[in-house]
Amino acid sequence: MIYFMFATGIENSYPTIQGGRVRMDEMEKCRHYEFWKKDFDLVRELGIEYLRYGPPLHRTWLGPDRYDWSFADETYAELRRRDIVPITDLCHFGVPDWIGNFQNPDFPGQFARYARAFALRYPWVQLYTPVNEMYICALFSAKYGWWNEQMTTDTAFVTALKHIVRANVLAMQAILEVRADAIFIQSESTEYFHAENPSAIRPAEIMNEVRFLSLDLNYGHRVGSEMYEYLMDHGMTRGEYHFFLNETRKHHCIMGNDYYVTNEHLVHPDGRTEWAGEVYGYSVITNQYYARYGLPVMHTETNLGQGPNGDEAVKWLRKEWANVLRVRNDGLPIVGFTWYSLTDQVDWDTALRENNGRVNPLGLYDLDRNIRPVGQAYRDLIAQWRDVLPTQSVVLALPIFPPSQQQEPVLRRVESGARERERRSRAASAKLIDPNLEGDGT
User: Fold this and answer.
1) Which of 80, 299, 344, 390 is buried most, with the most CB atoms less than 10 Å from its CB?
2) What is the separation of C-alpha 348 from the centre of its chain, rounded to a whole number of angstroms?
3) Domain boundaries, the chain
4) Which CATH class is domain 2-432?
5) Chain segment 58-96, per-residue pLDDT in tens
């Protein structure tokens, strides 16, 4: 039996801005490099066993097959000693300077080599988010012009998206070669676009299809004819599209849904958007995503500022938890919840577009590592609900083991069985797939 995964995360975004001259390293801004041992103490103080965490890619990945594992060696050894289960986040909104940006076609293959090297060095790690929020990363970098390549065209967006998702797929394959029972939790922003009036219905409908593209490609879900034409018109080839259809590792995945008060948008007739606030909420939108992909679900990110009265974040936590219970009562296999992040963040009030050094009170703790009211509320919630929400093993084909059990004989048998199932699955797929298959996405 697997118990519900209550989690938090260490904010480790590191996109570049100002034409690549400034890197917005949240681990540095939030002083995690200085206080990482204290941060792990805080995780345990809250009663949390799962941590979204990953080494800073730009400091670790120095070049092709060149790595500096010094910080990762220290932190991962400590996570293992404390029996904290890392959900390892390998790429979070940025790449090293030598890669350049997400327009680089060499990124996916090189990143897969990095993922394999990580898995070989830390074979006890089982849970991964290879690339965080693939849709948001491509959107902010190549359509909105905020980060990294800072481009603003559909062709740049499709190019970034296909490279990012291909990197995620190849990384999953590389990790599975090392760890056959690995599980991938795709932390992805769940969005919805509301039409302001009848004239805005058409642009809203298009945006509501684009929001699915990253997961459609990642899970090998055939896109509709309009999205197929969109992809083909803006730089994706038929061969690239069929790569995504044929190389899915969906059966190793949990669909991670991120939801904030900014995830729903009001669409104007000219295509402009603005935040709509919480209209549908997490449970309604998660049901839409589950209906499309049919995968186990985890609420992988949410937060809200503490507010002038000091209780806004606590109220939001209670609302999101009520939505999680609503999803579960609807019969969806939801396996976890995450308040993101452990500490306050810096400069997310401008979506990391400006290097102001402004602290955003979004964490369970402030940057002096003092607990916030939402931290106390989350600690109480975990204590009250931890043993009430077991997740039956039928939800996940592969059980999750804490670091302290990673060398147990039963785990080796599970991994051996997973490797054999993967071999049979790939053999069956090879028989079904015509390598010369052509056609549209319908």
Assistant:
1) 299
2) 17
3) 2-432
4) alpha beta
5) 999 999 999 999 999 999 999 999 999 999 999 999 999
